[in-house]
């Protein structure tokens, strides 16, 4: 299974990501890009159509967490220890949001990630994020998660 397939399999078991329509756009040794399409589910202000900040937080926590599959040899459950998001400006209504994340340091117990949420250009971020994830080691049946086809 290549890196993109591993990332897609991981995303497929997260029910809230399925409901929001998230998809893996790119996953390789340079990081991960996940797309969050614009929909009524992510609108925070129904008058203006502006996306709720919680939707961007969900996108970026998911993106940083799944980016670990781009850097680890085996699948590991890596729960979020800390996530910091600095919002730069609101998302433009009607357009999808992309999350990019990369791991910049991997230790035996902790993985450090960073990334951005953006719409058209990564150089014009909606938000910057840094996340810290705990390594719990390979699951005894870690690959089984991917073999279930999105059902846990």
From TrEMBL:
<protein>
    <recommendedName>
        <fullName>Thioesterase domain-containing protein</fullName>
    </recommendedName>
</protein>
<dbReference type="Pfam" id="PF03061">
    <property type="entry name" value="4HBT"/>
</dbReference>
<dbReference type="InterPro" id="IPR003736">
    <property type="entry name" value="PAAI_dom"/>
</dbReference>
<dbReference type="InterPro" id="IPR006683">
    <property type="entry name" value="Thioestr_dom"/>
</dbReference>
<dbReference type="InterPro" id="IPR029069">
    <property type="entry name" value="HotDog_dom_sf"/>
</dbReference>
<keyword id="KW-0378">Hydrolase</keyword>
<feature type="domain" description="Thioesterase">
    <location>
        <begin position="49"/>
        <end position="122"/>
    </location>
</feature>
